[in-house]
Hints:
Layout: E1 3-10, H1 15-29, E2 36-41, E3 50-51, E4 62-67, H2 72-78, E5 84-88, H3 102-121, E6 124-127, H4 130-138, E7 145-146, E8 172-176, H5 185-199, E9 204-208, H6 216-228, E10 235-238, H7 243-252, E11 255-258, H8 267-274, E12 279-282, H9 287-291, E13 296-298, H10 303-315, H11 317-337, H12 341-348
Parallel strand pairs: 1-2, 1-4, 2-3, 4-5, 5-6, 6-7, 8-9, 8-11, 9-10, 11-12, 12-13
Amino acid sequence: MNIHQFSAGFQLGDAISQEMLEIKRLLNKEGFTGKIFAENVLSSDRKYAEKISKVRIKENDVIVYHHSIHSKVLDFLLQFPNKKILIYHNVTPENFFEPYDLRFSYLLRKGREDLEIIRENFQNSFAVSNFNLNELKHLGFHHPKLFPLHLNFNKWDHNHIESKFKTFQFPSFLFVGRIAPNKCQDDLIRFARTWKSKYGNQFSLRMLGFCNPDQQSYLDELNFMISQLDLQNEVKIISYVDETMVKKIYLESNLFLSMSEHEGFCVPLMEAIHFQLPVVAYAAGAVPETLENSGLLFLTKDFDQLSIDVFNIFKDSDYRNSMIHQQNLRLDSYLKSTSILPLLEVIKS
């Protein structure tokens, strides 16, 4: 029996791709073989995943499908009678992308419609957060289960991860995530403008992530804002290269700031905790669930008030250390909650 995993796309570094690799590693430890397939795979990533045209599904193979957007993958899988298992990562609401990329907006709308097809044709379903699980329940999925994301921080060397405030004199804000309208990097730039007006230009804000070429107009908009608001020296947008660079930027930063308005989990929140950064995040989607009782959540984008709240993190070392302590407790608790066993149970049933 092979357990093959499928998704619309595979790109080393994104949350779904990392999850697929970790599930494959854990299943291999249990004696199961299988490959990762996607409709879109970068040539540089083809040692990890293959195009769906390469798959050869045998009678007893199990199909695990990671869903987040419409693609040809679902129609391809439906032709096989094999056991099918859904892992749901959420579908971003289409309205975020309508001003920038109508095709992508259409794929998101179809991706949400696909859930009804999946419900009728898949034997088992999982969601990577309770936020996502509630969506499946609302849509009438039969006994969907929670399957927390498997986070693998072993890919980074654990040396030199300690409090950032011993070695950094000025605030160094960071956000990691796709350059995309739902991530609201434009609001990060607005925050930077407010921060500069209150506290001066001795700070940096870096936004690290891949931008879909079809959404170049959003990236152009961000660059225009940076120029018009005279933030060229303080604010930088950095395209994702590899995990080595991600680690370097986490180590060089001292606060993680998220304005994202839709998240099905948000892995970078946990990465920031791992790197001992205080986390400040807009309380949207699954973000409150992911952080639980840690970090600093805000409900409205009042940048004047937010800048004061963030300044207090830098000013008050006891408050900051308490935040980091609570975050570490949350990460430890979360890592203990993850297990491959729920997936194994349905595979073997």
